[in-house]
Amino acid sequence: MSESAASAAAALLDRIQAPEGGGREIPDAATRDVIGRAPVHSVTHLDRAIARAKAAQPGWETLGHEERSALLVAAADAIDAHAEALAHLLSREQGKPLNGPNARFELGACSAWLRTNAATVLDPQVLVDDETLHAELVYKAVGVVGAIGPWNWPLMITIWQIGPSLRMGNTVVAKPSEYTPLSVLALLAVINDVLPADVLIGVSGDREVGARLASHPDIDKIMFTGSTATGRRIIESSAGNLARLTLELGGNDAGIVLPGTDVTAIAEDLFWGAFINTGQTCAALKRLYVHDSVYDEVVDALAGIAASVPIGNGLDENNVLGPLQNRAQFDIVSRLVEEAKSRGARVVTGGEAAPELGELFYRPTIVADIDNDAALVQEEQFGPALPVIRYSDVDEAFALANAVEVGLGASVWSSDPDAAREVATRMQSGTVWINSHGGLHPMVPFGGVKSSGYGLEFGVEGLKSVAVSQVVSGPGRTAQA
């Protein structure tokens, strides 16, 4: 990372952080040095922000799709112009390295998703068009959207929430995670350089602010990405205002490697399906079921990659894995791996902290010969530790994969993609990938089933999710004639 990018990041930080002596200190995930001070907004501040967003919404909707789309493209251009500075700040605050599928990748996704939101067409749907009746289904703005983001992909997921919302004529009040507020507020500042006033407002605060956002009577839609437990609280909080909800909640994604699979061909994709962002990804591969015939080969291949992948401070251009973002998550990973060890599971590589790298670094870990009922299998680890479970019967593997309360993503791996596709729908998950895991496309809908939430994001379905439908019904062709 160049000095100019670091200077530009510092300039962005100066625009959004709290005045000296105020706010809350935010640490560098790798070094634990203080990056800056995040504003700590109150519920009163939030109420004022929502009032401003509500007042701005009719004018924003009146601009029309074409002009709003042009402004989203301008926002994407602004992100591209500040991408290196934003990546620098993101790498420090979240911990992910600049290179690999990490910080620079995340900034590229922000721009790409905004451009896709701008270009996606959502035409009225003609329901009936005959001699007696012409009926159409049209889509209008919901109103004010409350966007509550996570700390693992803070910029990209914020764009997933605000991009379609703005495109459909809504205004947005966005609350970042308390762990990663600085990079999100910097992103919003860059976008707001091209948007009209009060169309997009960032509010940085604690859980009390988040709860008020979900329950506020002037919030018409909530978009939330985070834990299932918090999602349930948001459902309860939103009952009073009947806000519409899109909830992308916890996952414990399973992958199944079918008999006879060419391990060499899939090993690299298997590894990154699990370890992208140091395993801190909602739709990462978190449990891997492997057939007896290829079990040892898969374990050895994954362990070899895990032992050799560069890990360290994200600002080092050579690294592609970083630390856990926060102490609470580090402790969860440590606990789950230690419990697996105590049950007799075999740690093939890793299985311990890396204190020489920093306080929150944990070595990439492959755990083999582990029982399916181990906590590392049954709980979402959200970190760099992958349990590999042996199976001999394919029906049993699918039963074990589905025997959890969540269902975000899943994958099937085989040298015969057609055979994998035939069985893929047996997975109880919102998305099933074939010979990959976790890849997303801005035009392909994404969402969970069971306790992984509800509602779809991305593409045409994503635009519909931040709109209200209206039927316009009138005379048919005969009556018009």
Automatic annotation (TrEMBL):
EC main group: oxidoreductase
Listed PROSITE patterns: ALDEHYDE_DEHYDR_CYS, ALDEHYDE_DEHYDR_GLU
Domain Aldehyde dehydrogenase: residue ranges: 28-468
Example of a GO MF term: geranial dehydrogenase activity
Keyword Signal: no
InterPro entries xrefs: Ald_DH/histidinol_DH, Ald_DH_C, Ald_DH_CS_CYS, Ald_DH_CS_GLU, Ald_DH_N, Aldehyde_DH_dom, LUC3-like
Keyword tags: Oxidoreductase
EC number(s) stated in the UniProt entry for this protein: 1.2.1.86
Active site, renumbered: 248
Family assignment from sequence similarity: Belongs to the aldehyde dehydrogenase family.
Protein name: Geranial dehydrogenase
Organism: Microbacterium foliorum
Classification of source organism: Bacteria, Bacillati, Actinomycetota, Actinomycetes, Micrococcales
Gene for this chain: geoB
